[in-house]
Amino acid sequence: MKRRIFFSIAGMMLFAACSHANTQPVAQVGGTPPQVQAPIAAATAMPQIVQLWISRDTFGSGDSVSGQVTTSSNVASVEARVVGFALPMQRVSYGHFVLTYHVPVLPSFVKRTFDLRIIARNSRGDRSETSIPIHVQ
Fold first, then answer.
1. pLDDT confidence of residue 25
2. Which residues, including other chains, have CB under 8 Å from residue 123's CB and lie 6 or more apart?
3. What's the rounded Cα separation, in Å, for the pair 50 and 30?
4. What CA dihedral angle connects 131, 52, 72 and 121, to 10 degrees?
5. Between 31 and 20, the higher pLDDT residue
6. Given 2.60.40.2890, 2.60.40.10, 3.40.50.720, 3.40.50.2000, which CATH number is that of 24-136?
7. Structural domain boundaries of the chain?
8. Per-residue pLDDT tens for 75-117?
């Protein structure tokens, strides 16, 4: 009897650990933005970033850059962050967020590679994060 209880508890713990495993989102640069269905999630579930699309990963002063993020349905907000600069992404439907940004004139010391961090939060404040490198020239 004790053995059965032990294995039942161990199985539930393993299932819980696997169900909260963070899978790496699919990142795509350029081309057509993918049309990915947002997975349905409970409001209390951890937010999940499923797909990240950016129009280009190399840009300079005056360029326009667009991005699209697909998340689980329980995500309340997504922000795009580079170093200390953060921009909120606009939610167009459950699990779908977009952003278009016009790059201002940049000084020469800013022209290098940065990590673009995408941070998704649910209404409780739980967060999920991924990043991709971008090149400023």
1. 81
2. 43, 74, 76
3. 17
4. 40
5. 31
6. 2.60.40.10
7. 24-136
8. 999 999 998 899 999 999 999 999 999 999 988 888 899 999 9
Q: Fill in the amino acid letter for 14.
A: L
Residue pointed to by tokens 């991005």: 67
User: What pLDDT is stored for residue 19 in this prediction?
Assistant: 41
Residues 71, 97: contact at Cβ < 8 Å? yes
Q: Are 118 and 130 in contact (CB under 8 A)?
A: yes
d(CA 133, CA 27) in angstroms, rounded, equals 11
Band (26; pLDDT cuts 50, 70, 90): confident
> What are the two backbone dihedrals, phi and then psi, of residue 7, each rounded to the nearest 5 degrees?
-70, -30
